[in-house]
Amino acid sequence: MTVRQDSAAATARQSPSLEFCTIHGYRRAYRIAGSGPVLLLIHGIGDNSSTWDEVQTLLAERFTVIAPDLLGHGKSDKPRADYSIAAYANGMRDLLSVLGIDRATVVGHSLGGGVAMQFAYQFPQLVERLVLVSAGGVTKDVNVVLRAASLPFVAESLPLLQLPGAMPSLRFAGDVLDKVLRAAGFQLDIPDVLRILADLPEPTASSAFARTLRAVVDWRGQVVSMLDRCYLAEGIPVQLVWGTQDQVIPISHARLAHSAMPGSRLEVFKGSGHFPFHDYPRRFVRVVEKFVQETEPAEHDSERLRVLLRRGAREEDMEGSADMRTAVLDTIRQDERSAS
Fold it and tell me: Per the residue annotation, which of 246, 258, 259, 335 is the catalytic one?
């Protein structure tokens, strides 16, 4: 990994700074902080780079930490464009190139986890390590609310939240429900859901959200599955982070991915929901720091990639019990998988 001098000088700060660049005619926003080895933090659907603020500040004590707003999100432009996982991976490649960064450890949350995996699939030579946090795209299961939101006209109705009193009423109901559920021992990430919803009523934001969601989810569940290609991560250090009470992408996905990725690590945050880095930010930072410290950056080997592609996924290369390996293979056979 190298960072060119002009980029390194610009990142010698600890607090995230919101900056902008223009790529292919579209303005891209990103937050950057720190110096040292590069971490690229990719947020989830409907979210933005500020979701990483607390952990980005802590990580910036040891790393150059870049957290972009994906196209269609946050302060980035929201054009009528391609919002597929592959397109987002291309966008990450372009951003790193503009910033003068040759390689990075890629950290992805939810949709961002799927983008991180796709990025490693498309551009393995740019990836030193992967940290997948409550990552999307392992298999088709996903929360019924996201399935419903993918239906025609549902996401397009989000601008109705701009009506007088709509968001305050929703926040009040959400706060009450959150307190009741927490008292009963349940974690549903309601404050984070409300935070994300507050940004979506703006028409271009809701349109970009709809396009992004429908690129990865339909009424039957997640459209894109990476489970059949997890074996290609062999040679790339992988850290999985999941919450036991994740209601969006169940922890069962973590166990499937862990089995399908030989040598991967799995850190389970007991009692955490879909945002473990919000629930336990310092623990999350310690996990990332330890992972980077204890692993060597991946070195891309094109001949090894050819061998893996010709061989394909094999049960004997998977980890875990016989039942878990069978579950991975059964899931691969049953899911309708993306060909991208």
Answer: 246
